Amino acid sequence: MNALNRLAELFGKLPGIGPRQAKRFVYYLLQSPPAMRKEMAELIEGLSKEVRQCELCYRFYTTESSNSKRCAICANEARETESLMVVEKDVDIDAIERSGSYKGLYFVLGGIIPVLESKKGLARTKELLRAVDARKPKEIILALSLTTDGEHTSDQLRELLHPLAEKQSSKLSVLGRGLSTGSELEYADPETIKSALKGRG
Ligand SMILES: [Zn+2]
Predict the structure, then answer these.
(1) What is the C-alpha to C-alpha distance for residues 197 and 7, in angstroms, rounded to an integer?
(2) Domain 3-48 belongs to what topology?
(3) What is the CA(200)–ligand 1 centre distance, in A?
(4) pLDDT tens-digit map of 143-160
């Protein structure tokens, strides 16, 4: 395979990118200044060196924002440790943080539990159980997208976490209405997130 096709194939693996769009990226890059291509290539190469995964919440962070094994949120002592919010991916944390209405900690599931078995589930369920067991939060908030897979994941997690939550008297809640059906958390605006948090139960 030649370099152009291979690069298009790799772009095509990015979320939401189809083969045609992937080709457009390649042609766009060909027309862009060499300095931009170089910077991109270097940044991509540096990802494994300068980006770590938090040992507590599994979120990715750059070593310049925190030099410990924990991300800036987990390392921040001002955060409220009694609540733990479970989200699907890193960008969901950004959306919640933008709303400014949550001061607790997070856990990044890293994927969903798909309704169809043919789809691959990548959710860190074992790690989540371990985190809940170790941190004993007073409240566990499930903040998955209101999509079919997101809701299925939420139901499965409720079942999975129920015995442990009961044992350590943690309240299990789910983000409330406000988020419309089919909506992805990462695209929700701050006001919507605020009211979804208020309406949790
Ligand atoms: Zn963290």
Answers:
(1) 41
(2) Helicase, Ruva Protein; domain 3 (1.10.8)
(3) 23
(4) 998 888 888 999 999 999
